[in-house]
Write a structure and sequence with these properties.
Layout (H helix, E strand, L loop, with lengths): L6 H16 L5 H12 L3 H20 L9 H13 L16 H5 L5 H86 L5 E7 L8 E6 L5 E7 L8 E8 L2 E8 L7 E6 L8 E7 L11 E5 L3
Antiparallel strand pairs: 1-2, 1-8, 2-3, 3-6, 4-5, 4-7, 7-8
Length: 307
């Protein structure tokens, strides 16, 4: 079988050696074959070799430099000294090869060349992986910065969402209070119409105690048919937290009849139902901080009648 090669075979062989040649890892027959092919003028291989050398140079510069360890110098000197004591290898003559480019081009393909190419490819792979690792480290650092910015944005959105939820809860509470006041006003007006619309309604004056402000007054209007009443009060302590409760005391027991607020001038109106005659109970008024109290917590400020 002949080892003669066609120009296409030589071009393919030279192309396989370009990567190792870009790293200066070729010698012997392989280097001669590639250099001869390049001397013949192959623009594709020349362009590929230039690109590979540019990539190899960039990868080498992208790897951070490291200082040699303190023991490197002494270790090298020991190995050199040990090499002097080893018997020099016996030179084995090799058969002469025909000189010139044609001999290089006609060199047969041997497994040794494949091993050299494999080693060169391994070197290129290692260098590429090192450079790629450096690039990935930069990408990871950039991703960390983007992640921090994203987390800060998420925290800001969560804070704004919490503020919006609180504002919504406050609005619901205010709407509930307004609805309650509106319902109370409607009920109060209905009571006024019911009580005052009856020509036989009763009118009673409440007397201020020592705890009431000077000039405070109160009037109780009662419909004797239904027991519904309204109370008009003025001159009380305005601007205080809470409101006023009208009580009915029978013996030692107190029963709340109604709760009402007053304006900053101390004027207010309340309504409710009486279950007993006015003369059989003591009606009195006290300031309270909560409308659901069951016993008076403050002193009586106005009173009416008594057993």
């Amino acid at each position: 079988m002949s080892d003669a090669r066609t120009p296409g075979d030589l071009h393919d062989l030279a192309a396989e050696l370009l990567e190792a040649h870009a790293l200066n890892a070729l010698d012997g027959d392989d280097a001669a074959i590639l250099e001869a092919h390049l001397d013949d003028g192959c623009p594709d291989c020349e362009a590929e070799l230039a690109a590979l050398r540019d990539v190899a140079g960039r990868i080498a510069l992208s790897v951070p430099l490291r200082d040699p360890g303190p023991g490197l110098k002494s270790r090298v000197l020991r190995e050199v000294e040990a090499g002097r004591q080893v018997e020099a290898p016996r030179l084995v003559p090799t058969p002469l090869r025909p000189p010139g480019r044609l001999a290089a081009l006609a060199a047969p393909w041997r497994p040794a060349r494949f091993a050299s190419m494999a080693a060169s490819a391994a070197v290129v792979a290692v260098v590429v992986l090192v450079g790629w690792n450096v690039v990935l480290q930069g990408d990871v650092s950039g991703l960390d910065d983007e992640n921090e910015a994203l987390l800060a944005t998420v925290r800001t959105v969560e804070e704004q969402q919490a503020q919006a939820q609180q504002a919504l809860a406050d609005a619901h509470e205010q709407a509930a209070v307004a609805s309650e006041r509106s319902a109370e006003l409607e009920s109060r007006m209905a009571a006024v119409v019911t009580v005052m619309g009856d020509e036989d309604h009763e009118r009673h004056e409440l007397t201020g105690t020592e705890e009431a402000p000077r000039g405070a007054w109160g009037r109780l209007f009662v419909n004797p048919q239904t027991g519904m009443f309204i109370i008009l009060a003025g001159g009380l302590h305005g601007g205080m937290e809470g409101g006023y409760v009208l009580w009915m005391r029978v013996g030692d027991d107190h029963f709340p009849l109604c709760f009402f607020y007053v304006d900053p001038f101390g004027n207010g109106i309340g309504h409710g139902y009486l279950s007993v005659e006015i003369g059989d109970a003591l009606i009195h008024l006290s300031h309270e901080y909560h409308r659901d109290v069951v016993q008076p917590s403050g002193p009586s400020q106005m009173e009416l009648g008594g057993p």
